[in-house]
Structures are given as C-alpha cells and as structure tokens.
Amino acid sequence: MCSLALFPAPLPAGQTTLCESNNELLSGGGSTEDRLKQESSPLSLYFPRESLKLHCRTESSSKAAFLDHSETLWMRSAAAWRDGGLTGLLDEITNSNTEVPKWLSVSSGFTLALIRWFSSFHGSLFPHLTMSSEDMLAEFSQVLNWSDCVVRAFAWHPHADKFALALLDDSIKIYNPKSATTPTLKHRLQKSVAAVQWKPLCASALAVACQNCLLVWHVDPCSLSTRPSSGCAQVLSQPGHSPVTSIAWSPSGSLLVSASPMDTAMMVWDVAAESCVPLQRVGGGGVTFLSWSPDGSHVLASTPSALFRVWETRMWTCERWPCVKGRCQSGCWSPDGSRLLFTVQGEMVIYALTFTDSPAGVPTCTTKGPQAAAVVADLSETTFNTPDGDIMVGGEIQSLAWDPTGERLAVLLKGDSQAADRPAVIAMFKTRTTPVFELLPCGFVQGEAGAEARLIQFHPNFQHGALLTVCWSSGRITHVPFYFLSTSVPHFGLGGSPSLPRPQERPADFNQSLFTELAS
Amino acid sequence: MFSAEQSCWFVRKVICWRAVASIAWAVLLLPPITAVFVILSRFSLLHPIQTVSECLTFLTSASVIFSFILLCGVIIMVGFLNLEYYTVIPTIACSKIALLGQLLHPRHFVNSLAHCIMGIIVAWCCAITIGGRYEAVAYPCTPGDGADSSHQMCLNEYHFILLLAGAFVGLSHSMLGVIYNMNYVPFHTVQQYKYLRFKGSLPMLVKCSATQALYSVRNYIVLYFFLGYIPKAWICKTLNLHLNSSVHPLDSIAGLLDLNLLYQLWVSAGFLLLTWHVTLLLFRIFVTEVYSFAVQSSFTEDAHQCLPKVLTGKQSMILKFLALQDLALLSQHSPLRRVEVFSLSQPGGHPHNWNAISKECLSLLSDLTQRLIAYHDTVATNGRAKSLSTGSERKTSSETSVTSGTDDLMSPRPTFLMKTPASVFARSIVGSPLTAPFTPDLDSPFASPALRRLTAPPDPFSPWSGTVQSPHIMRRVPKLWSTSTDSQVNGSPPASPASVPSPKQEQSKPSLLAQFLQNRKEQLPEASSQALFADSQAHIWALEGLSYLVQASFSEDQFGVVQTALPSILSCMLVLQEAVDRHFKLPHASSKPVRSASSLGDSTHKTLRFALRATLKTAIYRITTTFGNHLNAIQMSAEHRKRLQQFLENKE
C-alpha cells in the first residue's frame, strides 16, 4: 500500500510544477519568465472571474416582486400548477382560503400536510432529496467547490486536439489550437452545467449535462461560426430526471448514459433516436456519478447512499457494492477496463476492484467479480517538514483520474476549506497494472500561489506520456506533461486506437511549446 | 439452394415457439390483472374491507371462472393476431389518403372486426364481473304506464352501453394500431433480459392503457350521445325487447353524466387495453430476443442454419433481421465467434464466412445508396417541375409535352414514386428499377411474408381495381392512392397523347374531389423520407457489424481476409455517407418527428434515418481511428481519399 509519507515534500510556496521528466517532477520558480513560458502554450487559458458576465437570477426571489396578485383564482391556480406542480397548486388553494369554499381549502391543506409529511419521511431516508438542485450539483459534482468555480466542466475530445469547457456564466467554449475560431455555445436550457463530454468516434457531438435536461450539441468542426445556433443542439429530457449530475458516452459512441440524484433510474439514451431506456434500481435513492470503462464493458454508477453499482453493459445487469462508510465519491477505470479504483466519502483511502473477463464468447450473465475491494493507497494527513515549516497534506479525495496509458494516476485531495494552509492538492501516482497492480509515489502537482486545483483531466492521446489538464480556482487552465516511455503498449480493447510507434523520449525542452509536439 | 421448407425452419422452430411462450405468459398474467380489475370495479370507499372480502369470494364463483376462460381465449386470439400481423418493417403512409387506404384494406378490416368482437366478449366479461345493474342484458318490466300487468322483457341499457363500449374500444385500438404502426416490432439498442425489460416497461404500459382508455371512452360517450339510438333500436328489434320508458335513457346528457357509469366504462376499457397491450408487449419482447446463430457448423445438414447462409437468404424478414442483429452483437462482444468469421475453410483455404457476410452487408448498403440517389434525383426534378408551373396546370403541362424531353419524362414520375413502402394497394411490381426507392421491392429481402401476402394478388375489393376503364381515372389512380402505377409497370409512358383527353377538357373539369385529395396527399412531407429509411435497422446492423469486424481484424485477423475487402467497404461507406448527407439537405428530411410519449405504437421507425446517419459516421470513424494512417496505403479514388482524409483529421 502506498501512502503519502513516501511522497517527496511539496514545493515551497510560489513554485509551480512544470512537468515530469526523467522520473522526477520539475518545478519552476515563481519568476515571470517561467510563467510566460507556460502561458505561451496556445491552450493555457485564463478566465478571470471579473471577465464573466454573471446573471444574478434567482427565480424564487424575484417571483414575489413581479407576480400580479390581482389575478383571478383560476389564473393563479394555473400558474401555481405550472410553476410548482401539485404542491404549488395545493399551496395556492390553501393560501387563498377567502375565495375558495372552506371544504376545499381545508382538504387541500390537509393533503398538503400529508404530502409534506410523506416527503419529509422520504427525505429522512434520502437526505439529498431535500437539497436544492444547485446544492445537489455542487455536492455530487466531480469538480471541487463547483458552485464557486469559474470553469465548471472540462472535456478533451477523445480523438482530436480540442477541448470544451463550461464556464460559470453557463456558456461553453470550444478551443482548438488549429483553428482560429472558438465557438461559444449558449442555449436557453443550458443552465448549471455539471459535466460535458465529447462523443467518441465522432468529431462534432458534445453532450452537456444541464440542470433540467441533457443537451447534445453538434458543432461542425469546419464551421467558422462563433455562435452556433441553438438549433444545433438536441434536447434530451425526461420528466423527473433532473438535475443531471453526470453523463458518460459508451466508448463505441453508440449510447449515452445520464444520472440524476433525484431519479432512481439511470437513463440509457439512444441519442440519434432521442429515446431512452430507464434502468431502474430503487436502492440508493438516485444516481450521482457515472464512469464507463474504456473497453466499454462496465459502467460504474454511484448513488447518494453508501452503495454503488457496477453495470455490465452487455445485458445491463448490475452488481451491488455496499460501502461501509459513505457514498462512492469518485472512480476511474484502468485502460483495459479490468480494474476499478474508487474512493468513498469520509475515508481517505483508494480502493481497487478487479474484474476478470468471463470466458470469451459465452454470453455473460454476471461477470463474477471480486468479493471485496482492496485498499491500495492511504492518503491520510501527513506532515512534511520543509524549510518553510511543517506542511500538512492529505485528507478526503474529490476525484480520481487515470491516464489512458495506465501509468499515471492523479488524485485531487479536497484539503480543508477552513484552514488556510491546507489547500486542495493534486497527488500523482505512478501505476503499473502488469504483472501485479502497483502504485508508486510520484509527487504533488502545484499551481501558482493562492490557486487551488478544482478539476483534473488527462489528455486522451498524448504521444509522449501523459498530459494532465488542471483547472485552477483562479480561472487558469494549465497543462502539465509527464514525459515517460510507456512500458507496455496500451491496449484499449475494442474501443481505442492502436498505438503508433513512440518516438524516443525527449529530454525536457521547455523552450518549445508543448503542443507543437502534439501536432500530427 | 435455400428452399422454402428450410426457411420455415426458423419460423416454425423459433418464432412460433416464442409467440407461444409470450401468449402463455400473457395468460399467466391475466389472473392478477383480473383481480386488480375486480377490486377496482367493485371498490366502495365506505366499506373497503367488506369489498375486499366480497371480491375474494366473488373471484372463486363459477361465473367468474367461466368469464375467465373466455378472457383466456381472447388473449390467445390477440396473441395469434399479433403473430399474424407483425412486421419488422413499418408501413409508412406517405399521405392521409394512403393511410385511409390502409385502414379500409380488407386485411385490416378483418383485424378490426376481430378486435371488435373480442372487445364485446371482454366487455361482457366485465359486465359479469361488475355485476349489479350491469349484469344482465334484459330485465322484466312493465311497459307503458304500468296499468296492465303483463310482464315484458326490457333492454338493460347499462349492460348494452358496456358491450358497445367494448366494441368501440376494440375497434379504435385496431385503428390506432394501423395509424401508429403498432404491429411494427422494434428492436432495441439496449439489450436486457426479458423479465427486466418487461418490468421496465410495465409502468409505461399501465399509464398508456389508462390514458388511451380515457380518450376512447370520451369519444365513445360523444358518439353514443348522438348515434346511440340506432344500435339501441336495432338490438331491441332483434331481440324483441322493449325500452323501459320509466327509466331515463342513457343517450341523454343526464343519463351520461352518471359518474359510476363513466368510471366503470373507463375501468373496463383500461382493463381491456391493458390485457391486450401486455400481450403485445410480451410478443415484442419475445420475438426480438437475440438469437445466436452458429457461425459455421461441422455438420452439413445444419449448414443452412449458420449465420452466413441465413444472412444471404431472402425468405423470412424476421430471420434476416435477427441474423443481422446477431452479427452486430458478435462482432462487438464475442472474440471467439469473430475468430470463426475470420477463419479459412479447411480444404481450400477460402474465407467463405467472411466473404458471405461482407458481401451481404455491402449489398445491403449499396442498395440503400441506390435508393437514396434515385429518390434524390426524382425530388430534384420534381422541384424543378414545380417551379415552372404550379397547381393543376402542372398536370396538363407535363402530360401534354410528353415528347419534348427527358425532363418532362421525369416529371410524372414522382407522382407514382411517392408511395408507401408496401402500400396496401400496391400491385405486383416486379423488377422495375424505378419503383425501388420507395417500395422495398416485393421480391427483395425486405418484404415480409405478411407483406407479400398482402400485396401479391390484385385486390378484388379495392374500389379502384378492375372496373376502372377511363384513362382519366386511370391516370388519377396513382395520385389518389399513391401506389404504383399500372402503366409504368408495363413500361409504357404514363399516357400516350392519343389516349389522353385534351387538356382543355381536363381544365374545364377540375375535379374538386381530386384537388381535395391532392391537397390531402401532400400533407405528410416527412413521411416519404421516413418511408425511405423504413428498413434501415438492417443497414444499421450491417454498418455496425462490418465496422466492428474491421476494427477487430486489426488485431485478430490472422490470415488477412479482411484486408482484401477493406477498399470496397470503405468506398461503399463513403458513397453512402455522401448520399445520406445529400438526402439530409432536402427539406423535411432533417426535421425531427414529434415525440409521442404515451403511446404503445413505437416511434423508433420515425427516427431511423437519424440513427443511420449517426451509425454511419461512427462506423467510418471506427475504421479510421483503428487503422489511422495505414489507410493511406489503400487504393481508392481521389474523391474518396479526400473524404477519408476529412475523417482522418476529425473534421466530419
């Protein structure tokens, strides 16, 4: 088991991690020169919070100011039905007891009380149901401190060198180093974006998880338009399936699954037909996070309760995995889809589950998995003695990311938002899957002073190792390359592309922009 | 080589047993549904416990058991009709007139009649179950003012209205079935076990039965209010019953505003629809279950049951679809069976399996390409003709100047090409290439046996057949009914100048009916596009199967059997891609159909073209991302290379 005590000490304040080369993490001082170098790479972006036009809309607060109270009862009832559904209607009838017959107001008040009692009972079983949808998104998002984050979601395209990111002002921008235009996607329904993901084996389709629906944008990569119209977006919505907190495309690009903590069913969408199949399992009270294994055989679905499921995608049956302590916060799959790493809320360890393939060709009923998860890393607080004093690192884990070659694992540690000296930090592990699974310490990835990591993702096909993209709390997006020679030729099962012969590892050459090497 | 009795093998051994299993399950599910119905229909708010105990004793009584046996018979009959009428290729009416034609077709008429009768039977069972005032068809009464005490039998209108409601709901169910293509059996992209699939769609089923029952009852009430006296008078006359004048008649506002009556009608209609929908759903689930064909067999007598043979066979549509589905799944999920596909024959070393599979898939795809190109051509010329002359003038101008040029020869074509695939009035159109785009050729693999049965003989009951003599009407036939033309089949131009009445005559008699019908005809613009892609589920599987096999061949194909076919596969896909792109530029082709949530009629056939477009793109990308720059070594035309380069650069 790997623990943080084996890690090299974090960098002193002001130093930033630049890259990994020759098995060690190189850092640069806080000098402006280094920063300039890093910023000169075309995809390092900076979104200062002030540059975003935020709309201060809270519909519930403005409603009282604008509602015309001189409307007739019928109009108000209709409006209440439209806005608040049955409870809204009952509330309206109960409140306007001077206009309706007494029996009606009394009975509706009684019904309302009954509904509230029942929902509070239901809520006590599943406390997350009482949250507002914004809070729920913040709670279950993979992004640390989602509601306050400038970049709320980020996605690399699985094949092309481009990425999409969702900003705090509900717009989505698409960056492509080879094209001068950066399309900005806005849609009436695109609110509170929790996740974005590009469709595999397709150049243009981008799925967006919004507050009330799913959007699938079709952004023509050759188009010169900077504001694609909302006609380019398919709206996928299902009553009761909101807010959507997580989405996952199948690696073959044919299906999209979406999850909402309010809905016990996980939706499997056939996007082209705009039809969905709900996969209902009542236990857990909802689905919060989804992750499709790279070989397409399994889907991890975590629930708000101490329970997660692993679906097998051939016949869509699932295994239940009850956790002891809390819900499954995050998870990631090894590139061959045989190993799942996950973390549990309230625990400071990483677990691993191994799935062995069933005999090939035989239709699998349930792949016989392991009986229990094994702890592979312990990330509890550790104190490092540095010249600047003692630094405490460790704690709960926000998210995990495993690079596509299966050699580096990035772990975003939550830190402590109260204590000033315990910011969120990224711990990097070296991983090896064959012959035995191993985690080795690599180091901490740090940004500039005062910036906390919020979101991490690996580039899906970086040629010279792994490339970690980090979105910082300051609104900056940086890319940290890890140069290494892959020990094994990555094999993606059916889903991936075969690897090209790798060029000889270069020594770290910072004078050159990172992405010139990427250009194929 | 593939004779009829071998093709029957599949229908006889698999489909029939699946249908029987589905019917058996539907019959097994009948008792719980009936129990729920009994409780719902006899429930009284004031005595809940008493009701339940009453229901329990009632459920074991002899009359209930008899009606239960009747209901089982109805379910078996419904299941049989499902088996008889199902199709895997939806019939899409391109115009409202064609839809009307479908509704009035004798085959569907028989279906409607059967449903009507079964509706009456179910309603009778319901009446027995509800009991009370609904139970008997007649009761003794004293006619008139009751001065003379001679007892007569009077009609129990409550019983009668329930029976009639059953007939109406059965009829409307069968009509809606035609309109919403309920006999279409959709295949699902998400594979699930039968039990889980049934469980998953049960809530939707209950909801949709309840709403449909509500609408049916509403329509029925309106109809009964206006026309109820006719059947009432008829039944009284036939059965020699009297109307009790002291009882309020039900076809009045006061009579129909009886809440209990409305509730019982609704619950009975809901019960009826639910049992039938359950039967239909089970049938669909059982029939579309994946069937695993052997890729190759060591015994020659089983050779006709192997995947390559089954794929190339043209006998049964369902067999072909299941084989393609199995191909798509095996190419995706089972490496062992892929090895068999890539294997060489033992003496000789020929890749027979791969050759047969790839050839069949490619021919399917190129068939679709041809269809799309032909459609595009006709639509393009049609648009030009329209822009030249509009309205009724167009008819005359195009027909008077028949000899002038190719353009004019083309212009009448859309009128007969615009027809439903396998339109119910289609007469045998053998081998006419022009008809291919819109009617899956009857001899082509896409004609289901049901369909062929439907279209083969010239329909003696069709109002337009046989007696039509006048060329005037003859020419109108295709327009009205949007089917194939007789004249075109014979290879002659639609109307030679000699036989055409003079244009003046035509203009002087602008048949109002014809114009009306013409307008009706043009009301479903999207339908022709839907009809074009009606059988595209097969193409989708062919694309998936091919692309997954090609992808797997990169690492699994030991003998390089796939490599030789790679250029043709790529060019076939690229040509199709171009045709599909061109098709989606047409008006209406890319407009999305309205999503109808609460209907059992599956609407997946309406979106098949979008699914095909997405699958096609994904399939090409799957090949390009797998092979990457190796594809540059493949021989292909410059145009295709340019298109492929777009895919390699992720720019499509």
TrEMBL record, chain A:
Gene Ontology annotations of biological process type: nucleocytoplasmic transport
Gene3D superfamilies named among the record's database cross-references: YVTN repeat-like/Quinoprotein amine dehydrogenase
InterPro entries registered for this protein in UniProt: Aladin, Beta-prop_Aladin, WD40/YVTN_repeat-like_dom_sf, WD40_repeat_dom_sf, WD40_rpt
GO cellular component, one term: nuclear pore
Domain Aladin seven-bladed propeller as annotated: residue spans: 132-483
Alphabetical list of SMART domains matching this protein: WD40
Source domain of life: Eukaryota
Name of this protein: Aladin seven-bladed propeller domain-containing protein
The organism of origin for this protein: Eleginops maclovinus
